[in-house]
Amino acid sequence: MEYTIASIFLLIGTGVLAGIINTLAGGGSNLTLPALMVMGMPADIANATNRVGVLLQGLVGVRGFHKAGKVDASDFVPVMIPTLTGGIIGAYIASYAPEYVLKPLLLTAMLSMTIIMIIKPSVISPPAGTTPFKVKQRPSAWIALFITGIYGGFVQAGVGFLLITALAGTLRYDLVRTNALKMVCTIGFTSVALVVFIWNDQVLWVPGLILACGTMAGSFVAVKFAINADPKHLKWFLLVMTCCGCIAALFSE
């Protein structure tokens, strides 16, 4: 694969936007996956390569939230068990699915998740002062996190909104701590998925690391104002960009 100045700027610029969107809410991979496929990557390779930027962006974001005192570690293990279990299953499905099946599924998932973000409430905000539940108190949370892990292991796009629904909606975390814990979960199942993809030699490191430069920068900037950010302002922009990116990817070779 040849890299031009234009393609490098495309990856970095898209990565910055994705890093901001992922940190504030979710759905940044709706931009990065089509960008990688437009460069000529098969869907499975783009799906695997995208995880490099997601993982490094997550590390930057969690560090920023931790410095602000917004990372709640009390429920790490109970939350991570179902998400990691699901992530392993989802990654294996994605890794071995044939390309002619994977690409339509990726594009359909991206469009479906974006439309859901627009027409249904994707963020459930509990009242201030609400005490979060533990996973053992809400079996529905375990199921939601397991399904989210499968989806996240299979395709990254839109998984942030599923995590927000599971963490804020069922466990009643406030949105700031939800975003922080969401990124911890993302690091978990992304790490598992990336190991599977590396094992199957599906990661292209050069574009992955170029993309990661953008996602890390975007996450660093977004953490600065994540506490007061309103994700709904990103949704219409995200829908338009996803539609354009998916159309471009459909007609790319």
UniProtKB/TrEMBL annotation:
Pfam families: TauE. One of its GO terms (cellular component) is plasma membrane. Its main location: membrane. The chain crosses the membrane at residues 76-93, 105-123, 143-168, 180-199, 205-227, 234-252. It is found in: Cell membrane. InterPro entries: TM_pro_TauE-like, TSUP. It is a multi-pass membrane protein. The keyword DNA-binding does not apply. Keywords: Cell membrane, Membrane, Transmembrane, Transmembrane helix, Transport. Belongs to the 4-toluene sulfonate uptake permease (TSUP) (TC 2.A.102) family. This is Probable membrane transporter protein.
